Amino acid sequence: MGSSGSGNFSDYSGRPKTDSGSGSSGGSSGSDKCGEAFTASLEDVASHDYYMNHGSVPAVGTQLTVEVRGRVVAVAGTDSVGSLPTRLNYLARCLQVGFTYTGVVTASSNGTNPQVQADFVAG
Questions:
Q1: 66-99 burial string, b = 16+ CB within 10 Å, else e?
Q2: Do 119 and 103 touch, CB atoms closer than 8 A?
Q3: Bridge partners for 40 per DSSP
Q4: pLDDT for res 65
Q5: What is the pLDDT of residues 36-46, one digit of tens each?
Q6: Residue 100 has pLDDT above 80, yes or no
Q7: Of 3.40.50.1970, 3.30.70.2330, 1.10.10.10, 1.20.272.10, which CATH number belongs to 34-122?
Q8: What CA–CA distance (Å, rounded) separates 60 from 122?
Q9: What is the DSSP letter of 111?
Q10: Cα 12–18–23 angle (5° rounding)?
Q11: Does the global pTM surpass 0.90?
Q12: Which of 94, 107, 111, 114 has a Cα at 20 to 30 A from 60?
């Protein structure tokens, strides 16, 4: 058993498959992603309000929310803590339609490259 084709790039048209069969192709339609919990390692922590105002990262257990401030960011109180990875950009639309997200810092470290990791749930 194996794949069919000649093994040449000419076998690939570059167009998405348009099969309308009844099989499942996996993935998500996007309509239910808004309600899913997620974990994120925050980006650019040292350049966000929290680190600049406090000189350190938030402690484990710190409560967070998610907002759009140019990018989708995690916020503690009124201070942005870090940007969420771009793979989570769909959350901007979820926030627009009324979803909210709360989270908690699960790991954090100071140093030359401050790090914050958090778990979030839809509210």
A1: bbeeebbbbbbeebbbbbbeeebeebeebbeeee
A2: yes
A3: 118
A4: 99
A5: 999 999 999 99
A6: yes
A7: 3.30.70.2330
A8: 20
A9: S
A10: 110
A11: no
A12: 94
